[in-house]
Fold this protein.
Amino acid sequence: MKQIKLDLSKAFSKTGGFISPDIFDTYKQPTEQLNTALHKKSGRGSDYTGWVNLPYEISNEFLTEVENTAKTIRAKNIDIYVVIGIGGSYLGAKAVVDALSNNFAHLKGDKPSILFAGQNISEDYLAELRDLLKNKEWATCVISKSGTTTEPALAFRILKQDLEEKYGKAEAQSRICAVTDASKGALKTLANEENYKTFVIPDNVGGRYSVLTPVGLIPIAVAGFNIRALVNGAKEMASATNTSVPFEKNIACQYAAARHALYTEGKKIEILVNYQPKLHYIAEWWKQLYGESEGKDGKGLFPASVDFSSDLHSMGQYIQEGERLLFETVISVEKPDNKVLIPEDTDNLDKLNFLAGKNIDYVNKMAELGTQIAHVDGDVPNIKVEIERLDEYNLGQLIYFFEKACGISGYLINVNPFDQPGVEAYKKNMFALLEKPGFENETKMLKDRI
Ligand code: PA5
């Protein structure tokens, strides 16, 4: 099995806006030191660096418990597994499940379908989900580290009642799994009272770094995927980016250095690019990871994403010729799982016979290479992250790679990559507008403003 490759060759140039090789070399010492700070827990937010050694610490017994729980849930012959959570308690599972599933899994009738709730407050979304669940066999997993987040708490309040109405209290209890803090929060209290199967989110792992905890592993295992291979991939990348691996070979240090060097050159936006629709939510997960970790104190690259080649017919124009404040990081999947050959056509009206006998992925790869060259010509530096195929092992590597580089990147701009004080502002206003008890002053102040 291959290791992820990082190709920075299209991000370098002696001219401005790209990385100058001399400057890149100056990152050796700081990135190695910051990697050590993550491991030694001597950097900012070190209480939340439990994810650094997590791949090595996941025990065989724990994985067996997750697998057995998934087996018990699947044995109920459910059509739908509803995973309730938001942010870090949602995106990792969604990203991995989507990346590993058939593009048309829901329509093919693969069981169970993994659906999500509590990741928005849309009344229509919830109403339509409830409607769908009425005639389906289903179970649910509610995930919240704090146990108090409004969106999932609201969704769970409603879906729990639906489940109890459909199956009766006792059977409903056996269909609910809770993933939350070891001791505190409303969800923990409820899970104890109702005797739900409960898994703990370690104290020292924050939401967006929690895919390899029960937060991600339960939904991924219920979906039928191999969580051991996922963890093994992460372990491989943990070794490949360890403090003993010098900058010249350490792709997490190099990626963090490249992003920072480009940021310093005025590239304020990093676009994560994929050429596989299954990777759409990997990009959503990545945006949360980097956006929430770096975007603070008036600093940080803005993480954006596009799905190519679809978005080449929309955002491609801006990327080629708009404001020159972008660089791209392309996730390139070396081998597709399937083969579709382009046939010969007698009339050849579309003039595509020159491609007859080639497979579709060959065209996709040429689109990828052609786009990279065009964008570099348009002053958009390109970084490539190459993975062998879309499987659990490679995704495990990819997840850990991005996490490790994110920790180092946050330290490079001197922010705490493990807190998210900024997300409290909307909550305060929302509670004030909803007239939550305890927010009377804020309610008055906001009402005076609107
Ligand atoms: O990364 C984070 O910490 C956040 O995105 C949280 O995961 C998100 O706000 C959900 O929090 P909780 O799991 O406490 O419900």
In short: DSSP finds 19 helices and ten strands in the chain. The domain at 54-229 is CATH 3.40.50.10490 (Rossmann fold). The first strand starts at residue 5 and ends at 7.
